[in-house]
Amino acid sequence: MLKKIAETVEFLEKKITHKPEIGIILGTGLGGLVNEIAIETTIPYKLIPNFPVSTVIGHQGQLIFGKMGGKNIVAMQGRFHYYEGYSMQEITFPVRVMKFLGINLLILSNASGGVNPEFEVGDIMVIEDHINLMKDNPLIGKNEDEIGTRFPDMGCPYDTALIEKAFEIAKKQNIKLQKGVYAAVSGPTFETPAEYRYIRIIGADAVGMSTVPEVISARHMGLKCFAVSVISDLGVPGKIETITHEHVIDAASAVEPVMTRLIRELVSF
User: Fold this and answer.
1) pTM of the entire predicted model
2) 161 three-state secondary structure
3) CA distance 62 to 209
4) DSSP letters of 45-72?
5) How far is it, in rounded angstroms, from Cα 45 to Cα 165?
6) How confident is the model over 41-52, as a mean pLDDT?
């Protein structure tokens, strides 16, 4: 892995003029945040050595370097998922690369189904903790000590200071924010009513098919993490409706301007 990381980092460093401080991963229907970036360089994933290629509708599949909120950033406009057939190591490879490029903070977004009965479609949930139901972990296999410890602590996967700051920003800008636990499943099927009930019973507030592998890898390397979920549908008894990926994209896109405002202000912190 170290050799592949080095190859990819060397390729990217030749394309950029500033080392990024913050990495951003944009989920389904949330790629419009790039409009807030003063873009310096855009590189399609297919041109980057060792990078997977995103196959999901709503994921543009390009790496963007530039400035936002006075910070040098690198943004993934589209991520990779376990259900696409990629291994956990492939899914999280870009996070490894961003760390070796110089980032110290990883910001992630996703669209998810709300299982908390107090949530509504269009809510933004700041993730304070997660449950890994994907039956796999990106750290399984030989550990590279140069990257991180064999047994990383996950007692505080999401940075509490950044969570507090997000709520301060939300209060000042009259943004409605929720806070909760995100459960990650493999997908690609949406959940059955019984699965929604189970996920709620075990302590989650929302469920989705991403984010957790990237956060595990980021914390393995000592990166701070902040993540938000846009509630695109509800897995609450009496409120469950037929859901499609297009519906998720539309619901996430409708909330995107608000989420963009929040992240833009947080990056300036």
Assistant:
1) 0.94
2) helix
3) 20
4) GGGSTT-----STT---EEEEEEETTEE
5) 32
6) 94
